[in-house]
Amino acid sequence: MSNNNSKKSIFLPLVVAIAIILGILTGIYFPVKNDIPPLSSIKPRNEKLSNILNIIEANYVDSVNRNDLAETAIPAILKKLDPHTVYIPAKDMVRANEPLQGNFEGIGISFSNMNDTILIISTIPGGPSEKTGLLPGDKIIYVNDSLIAGTGISDEKVMSMLKGPRGTTVKVGVSRKSYTEILSYNITRDKIPLNSIEVSYMVNEHTGYIRITNFALSTYDEFMNAFVELKASGMTKLILDLRGNSGGIMEAAIEIAEQFLKQGDLIVYTQGRTQPRKEFRARGNGRFETGDLVVLIDETTASASEILAGAIQDNDRGTIIGRRSFGKGLVQEPITFQDGSGIRLTVARYYTPSGRSIQKPYSNGFEEYYNDLNDRFNRHEFANSDSIRFPDSLKFTTNSGRIVYGGGGIMPDEFVPYDTSMISPYLLQVRPLIYQYALQYTEKNRDDLNQYTDPLDLEKYLDKKNLFEQFVIYAAENSIRPDPQGIKISREFIYIQLKGYIARNIMDNKGAYPIWEKIDPTLLYAIRYLEK
Question: Which domain holds residue 439?
Answer without folding.
Answer: 421-531
